[in-house]
Amino acid sequence: RNPRIGIKACSSPSTAIAEPEGLKITSIPTTPVEGQKTGTSGLRKKVKVFREGNYLANWIQAVFNSLSPEDYKNGVLVLGGDGRYFNRGAAQIIIKIAAGNGVGKVLVGRDGIMSTPAVSAVIRKQKANGGFIMSASHNPGGPEYDWGIKFNYSSGQPAPESITDKIYGNTLSVSEIKLADIPDIDLACLGTAKFGSFTVDVIDPVSDYLELMENVFDFQLLKDLISRPDFRFIFDAMHAVTGAYAKPIFVDRLGASPDCISNGIPLEDFGHGHPDPNLTYAKDLVGKMYAENAPDFGAASDGDGDRNMILGRGFFITPSDSVAIIAANAQAAIPYFKNGPKGLARSMPTSGALDLVAAKLKLPFFEVPTGWKFFGNLMDAGKLSICGEESFGTGSDHVREKDGIWAVLAWLSILGYRNKDKKMGEQLISVEDIAMEHWATYGRNFFSRYDYEECESGAANQMVEHLRDLISKSKPDQKYGNYTLQFADDFSYTDPVDGSVASKQGLRFVFTDGSRIIFRLSGTGSAGATIRVYIEQFEPDVSKHKMDAQTALKPLIELALTISKLKEFTGREKPTVIT
Ligand code: G6P
Ligand code: ZN
Questions:
Q1: Do residues 107 and 205 lie in contact, with contact meaning Cβ atoms separated by under 8 Å?
Q2: Which of 39, 250, 398, 489 measures 20 to 30 Å from 541, CA to CA?
Q3: Where are the beta strands (DSSP E) in 239-355?
Q4: What is the ipTM metric for this complex?
């Protein structure tokens, strides 16, 4: 049995292999562990799995084995996380392995905390070589729940598949872990610790990020809106990482009252919550926003602060509409886009609302597979400014991750801009008004997603095979109920920047009226298979725009269930989540 790399393990006897500049490095023999392949967004497993043997240490070592030495030797790495259970212990392991592999400096957020977009911002601002993010995003946390880790490289973006494939390859051959013999770092105190040539800086997780937000947005405009007595704003941090950002940004800097923030303290188990800002899991916020006398604007963010949900009074903005509305208003309301966005992009299952904005503004437009990492190349190449996904991710090229607080500030900027000349006593333009106006201009793309979580993997795969078979036999103009097929395929994407190809990215049935039914297996679950069914229908007729999405989409949803035989394959009568 291999010696286990735990927080105190560095004192265990092993062979010393090098002592560069006052740092003792030990080589710990290890054997590969199966199944360390990263999904849509890093490696996610139950905490128990990560704590077994050298599971985490193997993966971290495999990352270093996958990089060229000049990418990290004497370089700077950023380390942050969403505050979930096991982060503190994991941070100590990661720091020791980083030092053991010759990294010069680690910048770690106080208490190991730093939101995903903030890690991206710090990597960029501090010109770091990359960073690790300890998070399983919106998955629940605690000893019985999930943990996760992701590697981002120097532009602040998640490692592309070429690197994650290499990491996976190295997890299958890793044989030694290089560990520096240094004590645990006191993560609670800001400051610098030096061990020979290696330095750890415990940094404030907010300041670099806040500075960036001040450069992107007009903070005076935001302050003017937030301080209006006739405008009420609430933010639910879901006991997750944005709790650390909400008070410094919304309260201390923008003047919101402290009681605008709920669940504002990051907790290791997110207060027993499921920190996913959607209509199912952000129940408290939804309740408040649909109550009588509800505030004007409500928002929430997820475990690691990259997702967002936007609500008006009694009104939900679907993420597909959110990115389209932000894009349509960005140039006017957000100084960062004063010259107009360079281009727009969405993930394939996200509704076509953004396409219509790109067409009207005559902007380059891209449709990429699910996964934020696919936007990065386009941003680095200067082709893309604003993008979003139906999965509650919205963001821009200010960082290389989606950004929950950014999305909230973007919406507040739009509201601030539209209402800046409104006198007290005048009716303010609401979130709902902005959405209705947008639909009147562009038409409405009704959209909904049905999730069937933790299905038996075999059954889910059989359903996918059944659909692939159906696609291979399908022909244009074929009738599906009242719908006529335009085409059906398995989405494949060729990156216009580096030519890399991502295939099998989702099964699409696209109909001649623009309606779409899409099936995918989630790449972010940690147990069984999650089937996602995405349904979209375009409606140009303004008189129908107020319709409830579930009502408008009912025939298409029924068609999706029929053609996929989802109930037959999985035994599921109902989805676990509807967004
Ligand atoms: C994460 C990723 C997103 C992705 C979402 C859903 O949040 O960062 O890019 O859209 O998960 O992915 P999934 O594979 O579970 O549908
Ligand atoms: Zn997240």
A1: no
A2: 489
A3: 261-262, 297-301, 308-312, 315-317, 344-347
A4: 0.96
For ligand 1, whether the C-beta of 58 sits within 6 Å is no
Inter-CA distances, 501 with 77, 167, 370, 492, Å: 29, 19, 14, 7
DSSP H helices, 227-304, are 243-246, 283-290
What percent of the chain is modeled with pLDDT above 70? Answer: 96
Could you say which of 41, 120, 135, 137 is catalytic? Answer: 137
Q: Residue 127 is encoded by which pair of tokens?
A: 């010109």
In the predicted model, is pLDDT for residue 69 greater than 70?
Answer: yes
The answer to whether residues 478 and 470 touch, using CB atoms and an 8 Å cutoff, is no
Q: Which domains does the chain have, with CATH numbers?
A: 9-205 (3.40.120.10), 215-442 (3.40.120.10), 444-578 (3.30.310.50)
- Ligand 2 (ion): which residues have CB within 5 A? 137, 302, 304, 306-307
Residue 186, class by beta-carbon neighbours within 10 Å (0-12 exposed, 13-18 middle, 19+ buried)?
Answer: exposed
Q: Is the pTM of this model over 0.90?
A: yes
pLDDT in tens, 150-177: 999 999 999 888 889 999 999 999 999 9
For the chain, the distance separating the N- and C-terminal CA atoms, rounded to the nearest angstrom, is 46
CB atoms within 10 A of CB 132: 26
Measure the CA–CA gap between 369 and 348, rounded to whole angstroms.
5
- The CA distances from residue 510 to 349, 367, 474, 483, in Å, are 11, 15, 11, 9
Predicted confidence (pLDDT) per residue in 246-279, tens digit: 999 999 999 999 999 999 999 999 999 899 999 8
Structure tokens at 243: 């709790």
User: 172 C-alpha to center of ligand 1: Å?
Assistant: 25
Distance between alpha carbon 434 and the CA centroid of its chain, in Å? 25
